[in-house]
């Protein structure tokens, strides 16, 4: 894949990858510019949907749902099985699109598509395991059970930084659960969306499923409002900033729709005096600078025991000095570009605020390759020593800035870790078992993800993924997240020939 991009121009390799995924010329051309953060160039243009188009997509998805919900779940699994096969076959093609639009290094772009393949495997298995419980009834000759049924249309709104993986967690499970899907991808990563959609459309055709169970709408936030407002959209699964959640959650709640929110994080790792510092160093560097600090699970805060902070920050600064920053298609590159100029400006503003609040930038923060690529934004990841918990540390700046704070006793470390509005991911590096257990106990980390001796990012699909507080409380991907995409019914079946009432109530 790397060779492919470097041998040809970026736009040409993107066009080839789109064609290989089955995206036809009709899906291209239009007003919306698909730009690459690698160079800042416009790769292609695509047409966008109007508000009427979005409503029509919901209508089609709803009609398809009425058929799809009656197809046995293991048969529904066949679509996802086929999608997984096609994703495996076209892993490199889709990864080229992800790399070109989201700026990921090659192994991370391939990893993103691998995550899609993994969730397909998981969802196919899940299609035979949509279990309900049977409970003993208090009445003779009665049986009590729960059944799970398809929910309806699921609206999926996705963020630029995982343009296809997080969407696929939702879509693979929603489709095996008998729902249909209307997908509004980020306007920044529309070509990746076209590629993933074309492969799913082919899987739907190959398996004879109703054609309209998956709808892609490339629409701006105004045109896509029907996804939030239309009562036929039973569940809105939205991934993005806290601001997005604040805008849409009250409106979905007002119509009693369901919302699955995967919003911003502000993830920290505690490094205890007993930690293996070399292992911690590797875990910290991957989590803090991987994807150029543009993962929801990026490590943004490091809470280090005061006895080891100088040693650890010295090691970190020297490790940061070895990172190769630049074109993510180069095999040796570890840090690709920021997504756009706004992101660069946000980073500079946060660094200025950190300095104003008493912080010292130990390394990084500057722009690189500006002469060679004036329309792209490559930066040196920054480490900032902060004297205390301060305002800037409370915010998620979607760029590679790692704030270093110190602690003197363990309760203080936990208080610092939990002392932000977001609650996505967290980690501790320690070889003290009691500390590790406390960290993951009820009185420890308040996040949806709490790791031991591993960084904050890079989750596997098998576990439930999501976070608390301003991160939104949603859970998706593995474990029993499938239930979010279904409705539960409780059935009482009376085979006694009598009509005894519960709680011994007498009537008639
Ligand atoms: P964003 O909030 O700007 O946009 C996310 C999506 O929401 C896009 O598709 C956008 O078009 C859409 N959107 C925004 N406002 C909308 C509105 N009012 N109505 C309908 N749609 C609207 O986020 P981004 O910059 O694309 O992504 C980065 C953010 O996403 C970060 O905060 C990151 O932490 C978060 N994120 C969270 C997770 C998670 O699982 N918790 C995963 C990935 C990204």
Automatic annotation (TrEMBL):
The EC number(s) this enzyme carries: 1.2.1.3
Aldehyde dehydrogenase domain residues: 31-488
Species assigned in the record: Zafaria cholistanensis
Protein name: aldehyde dehydrogenase (NAD(+))
Active site: 262
Family matches, as CDD domains: ALDH_F7_AASADH
Protein family membership: Belongs to the aldehyde dehydrogenase family.
Coiled-coil residue spans: none
Residues passing through the membrane, by range: none
Record keywords: NAD, Oxidoreductase
InterPro entries according to UniProt: Ald_DH/histidinol_DH, Ald_DH_C, Ald_DH_CS_GLU, Ald_DH_N, Aldehyde_DH_dom, ALDH7A1-like
GO molecular function: aldehyde dehydrogenase (NAD+) activity
């Amino acid at each position: 894949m790397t060779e492919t991009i470097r041998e040809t121009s970026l736009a040409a390799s993107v066009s080839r990858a789109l064609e290989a995924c089955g995206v036809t010329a009709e899906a291209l051309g239009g007003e919306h510019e698909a730009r690459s953060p690698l160079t800042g160039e416009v790769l292609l243009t695509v047409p966008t949907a109007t508000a009427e188009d979005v409503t029509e997509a919901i209508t089609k998805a709803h009609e398809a749902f009425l058929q799809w919900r009656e197809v046995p779940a293991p048969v529904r699994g066949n679509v996802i099985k086929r999608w997984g096969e096609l994703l495996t076959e076209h892993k490199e093609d889709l990864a080229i699109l992800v790399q070109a639009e989201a700026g990921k290094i090659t192994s991370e772009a391939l990893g993103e598509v691998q995550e899609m393949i993994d969730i397909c495997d998981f969802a196919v298995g899940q299609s035979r395991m949509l279990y309900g419980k049977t409970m003993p009834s208090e009445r003779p000759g009665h049986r009590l059970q729960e059944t799970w049924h398809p929910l309806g249309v699921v609206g999926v709104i996705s963020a630029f930084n995982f343009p296809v993986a997080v969407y696929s967690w939702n879509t693979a499970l929603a489709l095996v659960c008998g729902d249909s899907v209307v997908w509004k991808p980020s306007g920044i990563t529309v070509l990746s969306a076209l590629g993933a959609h074309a492969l799913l459309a082919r899987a739907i055709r190959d398996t004879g499923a109703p054609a309209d169970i998956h709808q892609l709408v490339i629409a701006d936030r105004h045109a896509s409002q029907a996804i939030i407002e239309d009562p036929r959209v039973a569940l809105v699964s939205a991934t993005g900033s806290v601001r997005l959640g604040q805008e849409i959650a009250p409106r979905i709640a007002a119509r009693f729709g369901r919302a699955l929110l995967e919003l911003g994080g502000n993830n920290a790792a505690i490094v205890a005096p007993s930690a293996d510092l070399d292992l911690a160093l590797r875990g910290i560097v991957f989590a803090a600078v991987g994807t150029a600090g543009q993962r929801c699970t990026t490590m943004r805060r490091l809470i280090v025991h005061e006895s080891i902070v100088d040693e650890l920050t010295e090691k970190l600064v020297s490790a940061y000095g070895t990172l190769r920053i630049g074109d993510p298609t180069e095999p040796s590159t570890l840090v690709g570009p920021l997504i756009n100029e706004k992101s660069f400006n946000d980073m500079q503003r946060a660094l200025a605020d950190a300095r104003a609040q008493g912080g010292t930038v130990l390394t990084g923060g500057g722009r690189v390759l500006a002469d060679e690529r004036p329309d792209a934004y490559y930066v040196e990841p920054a480490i900032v020593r902060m004297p205390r918990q301060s305002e800037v540390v409370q915010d998620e700046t979607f760029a590679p800035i790692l704030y270093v704070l110190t602690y003197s006793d363990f309760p203080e470390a936990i208080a610092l870790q939990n002392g932000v509005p977001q609650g996505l991911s967290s980690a501790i590096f320690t070889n003290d078992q009691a500390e590790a257990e406390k960290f993951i106990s009820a009185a420890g980390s308040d996040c949806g993800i709490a790791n031991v001796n591993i960084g904050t990012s890079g989750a596997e699909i098998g576990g439930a993924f999501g976070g608390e507080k301003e991160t939104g409380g949603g859970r998706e991907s593995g474990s029993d997240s499938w239930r979010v995409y279904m409705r539960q019914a409780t059935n009482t079946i009376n085979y006694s020939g009598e009509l005894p009432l519960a709680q011994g109530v007498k009537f008639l």
